[in-house]
Amino acid sequence: MTMIACNYVQAQSIMLLFMSVSFFGTGVGALGCTVVSDTSPKGMIGTYGALFNFIGNIAGITTLIIFGYLIQKTGSFNDVLIFVGLTAFCAIVSYGPIVGEIKRFDPIASVPAERAV
């Protein structure tokens, strides 16, 4: 969210402060690998980690394409910073309802008793 504020300040020191706060948030967001290892079924941490990294890499590719499109259309990084801020806001708002309680997934316990036989 602080990336959007960078569009509206003139002082480099304030912009540096806003970007530092933003990059701190990126570090907090990197805790996803810990959540994957804590919630994956035993014996499948590698598979779940690979899927998590695959989706993250796809996001990295598509984000650069979107950045290029926005810069080509506007000739400015302002819309790119707004896109980053809005994406971060959507992630913050949706994280709790989507993730819910963090606990290890047990595929055997999730099968109903009549189907487990």
Q: Helix and strand layout, with pairings?
A:
Blueprint: H1 2-5, H2 12-29, H3 32-39, H4 45-74, H5 78-99
Question: How would you characterize this protein structure?
Answer:
It is a single chain. The chain has 117 residues and is mainly alpha-helical. It has a domain at 2-30 and 58-99. The protein is built from five helices and no strands. The chain has helices spanning 2-5, 12-29, 32-39, 45-74, 78-99. Helix 3 packs antiparallel against helix 4 (45-74).
Identify the notable features of this structure and list them briefly:
elongated, 5 helices, 117 residues, mainly alpha
| Strands, total number | 0
Beta-strand content estimate:
under 5%
Question: Helicity level, as a percent range?
Answer: over 70%
Could you give the distance between the termini? 51 Å
What overall form do the CA principal axes indicate? elongated
Provide the succession of SSEs.
HHHHH
- Category from helices, strands and their pairing: mainly alpha
Helical stretch count? 5
Tell me, rounded to a whole number, the average pLDDT: 82
